[in-house]
Amino acid sequence: MAANPPSPPTAQASSGTAAGPAFSPLYQQIKALITRSLQTSEWRPGEAIPSETELAVRYRVSQGTVRKAIDELAAENLVLRRQGKGTFVATHAEQQVQYRFLRLVPDTPAKREPVERRLLDCRRVRANAEVARTLDLKAGDPVIQARRLLVFAGRPVVLDDIWLPGSLFKGLTTERLADYRGPLYAFFEAEFGVRTLRAEEKLRATAANAVDASLLAVAEGAPLLSVERRTLTYGDKPVELRRGLYETSNHYYRNELN
Is residue 21 over pLDDT 50? Predict the structure, then answer.
């Protein structure tokens, strides 16, 4: 637990003076305070946060205000509610969370296919201008560049090229990455304390070049779905650039729009 929990909101903070965010609803202020505790690892991924009653006492607000703040945090996948058990910090180790950003679904309805992850390459390089701009770095800053295949039921389906800020992933080696068999975002969280909270994606159609076709076991020129993803952590800080080629002859990309 943090030695000095954040001060509760005051009347001045609610009225928009220098003491707090201007015109911010009280539940939004509580949400910001809880998020700050998540960001500083006062409550770590997978751990329970204090009850709504305890948080209401801590921040000197009503339980309803706390509940509204937690509702928004749950909607953003920062916390998970468990019936009869409480509210827990979301973690990519959770089954329902670990595939949150993998939107590929088999054409034939079935249980989710097991995914084999094959690391093809991993090296520390200098960011070019485009990678640096996407990751909010300076050109020439160190980044880790990796390439891997996702194999579904023995068939290669996704070819990923990944760039990570070197400053956030010090000590990441080819061996450590190759030895890890689970979801990559769970690895980032457990080994480096980097939580991926949301992602922005760009999708377009493309054709396989000779190298990509060989790795994905398709003909050169075969249609592929190109997915460029930028994943972000607290404060919308980018922590990963990923460019994937998806072979969709037996899968489709599924999204839900609210």
Answer: no
